[in-house]
Amino acid sequence: MVAERLEELLRGAFPDADMLRVDDRTGGGDHFQVTVRSSRFDGLGLVDQHRLVYAALAEPLADGSIHELRISTKGTA
Amino acid sequence: MNQLHDRIRDVIENEDVAVFMKGRPDFVMCGNSARALDALRAAGASFTAVDVLPDPRIRQELSAVSGWPTIPQVFIRGELVGGADIVEELQASGELQAKLESAIGSDYRGEREERVTSVLAAA
After folding, report:
1. In chain B, how many domains are there?
2. For a designed S-S bond to B22, which of A55, B15, B29, B114 qualifies (C-beta 3.0 to 4.6 A apart)?
C-alpha cells in the first residue's frame, strides 16, 4: 500500500512527530493528504517546511506512485 | 545558458505575481492549479500565468530553478511563495494579502488582471 509506505518514510524523516497522518483522499491510492507536526519545522517558513516533506517523499514522488499530494505542516513551538 | 531556463527566470523575476500552472486561468487542467488561482483571486491579486503543459521541459526546468517538485508554483516578486496548499493557507490567514502588500504596494488590488504568457520561444 502506498499510504503505508508514505507513512513509514515520514516517520523516518520526522521521528519526533506527535501528529502524523496520511489520508488517501479519493480511495484510489494515489491522491494523498499528509499532515505532520514536528519540531523539525520550528523556525522554518512554510516553503521550507514543505521542502522537508518533499525530500522525505522524493522516491514515491519520482516513481509516479503519488499523483497528487496535499501537505499540511506545523511546528511544535 | 539555455533559452527556456532564461525565459523562466525572466518571468519569475519580472512579473509581480507569476503562477506556473496546468492549463490556463480560463481553462484550468488541474484541481491544485485551480485552488492556487482561487486563493490569489480571493486576495485580490493580479497575476501572470504560464501553462506548463505544452512541453514537459518547462516543468523540468522550472523545478530545477525553484527546487520545488510540484505544480502549481506561485512567485511574488521573484520569491517562491509555494504551491496550492501554502497559498491557500496564507490566503486564509491573511498573510498572502500582507505579503502582496509589502512586495508590490498597497495598490496591488487596483484593477485586477489575469494575464497569460509563454516561456517557449515563438515558433
Report:
1. 1
2. B29
The tens place of each residue's pLDDT in chain B, 123 residues long, gives: 589 999 999 999 999 999 999 999 999 999 999 999 999 999 999 999 999 999 999 999 999 999 999 999 999 999 999 999 999 999 999 999 999 999 999 889 888 999 999 999 865
Mutate to test the interface with A, among B22, B32, B70, B81 (most CBs of A within 10 A): B70
CATH of the domain at A8: 3.30.300.90
- Provide the whole-model pTM: 0.93
**A61: closest chain B residue by CA:** B69
Cell of A11: 516517520
For residue A16, the distance in angstroms to the closest alpha carbon of chain B comes to 23
Domain that holds residue A35: 2-74
Best interface-test mutation with B: which of A47, A57, A74 has the largest number of B CBs within 10 A? A47
Q: How many domains does chain A have?
A: 1
Give yes or no for a contact between B6 and B62, defined as CB atoms under 8 angstroms apart. no
The answer to whether residue B112 is domain-embedded is no
How does DSSP classify residue B108?
A: G
Helix A2-13 vs helix A46-56: crossing angle, to nearest 10: 120
